[in-house]
Structure prediction request, 290 residues.
Amino acid sequence: MKKETLQKRIKIANDIMYYVYTHIETHIDIDELSQDFGVSKYHMQRIFKEAFGRNIYESIKSIRLQKASNLLLTNKYSTISNIANMCGYSSQSSFIKAFKERFRMTPKEWKNGGYRLYSNWILQQSKGAMQSTADFSDVTATIVKMPIIQSYYIRNKGYNTKNIEESWQKLETWVLSNNVKEYQEIALFHDNPTITPLDECQYVACIATKNEVNSDRLPKFNISDGVYAKFDLKGKKGDFLRFMNWVYHEWLLSSEYETTTKPSYAIYHKNKYLSDDKEFDLSFYLPIQF
Prediction:
């Protein structure tokens, strides 16, 4: 496949995902979407699945249910019917059915404490997280407005440490090969690992450069601008998943903010996947609204 064709396909896939994130509360018509992007419905579905590992319908469903799972906890005065509408469901019954299929419980059971059981089940998939004794009681948030961040990236499906380490090694090689002097290492989280099985999570390793790099080796996309809660955090293996659990199910619930459908991300000051001691120093950005 020609490089320019590959870049075009990747851009279409990323643009579709961005559209889904920003219109998740509406009815998303795949036929209209294919017309807007100037490609056939079949071709659009194929290039999206090649990029993200699942089709557009599956992604829409996953993003809607992730949003709903958070709104059920943070939007205390909304009914289940209200939340179903906010997440793009045409009826309460279809929402309850989809929610129960995904989380093994009803939305009401989720609100009444079931979310803790589910997130603990996710944590048990990580030996490091189960061994972590990290305490976040002194961690505080700063509310910031972040700009769009253009980045070059490698996408990973699942939290397989070896694969992620290899991706960061490739990015480090790319940085050195292109003599990039000023850049940031960023991890983008398309899925919330507090409520998504770790082997299904999308982890995107990104290099954000100050200047454009004349290289077609890596695809690029924009990390969304917006209002974020920023947390500064240091730790070691397993601590970060514990932190994610805390930030979504403790800090967020007591803050009275709601998270949005935009992906969260972390800017590494010390990257655990590239450091000999496997420790990290990062700033985590959680998209919020009030």
Observations:
- Residues 184 and 208 are 5 Å apart (CA to CA).
- Strands lie at 142-146, 149-157, 183-189, 202-209, 220-223, 226-235, 258-259, 264-270, 280-289.
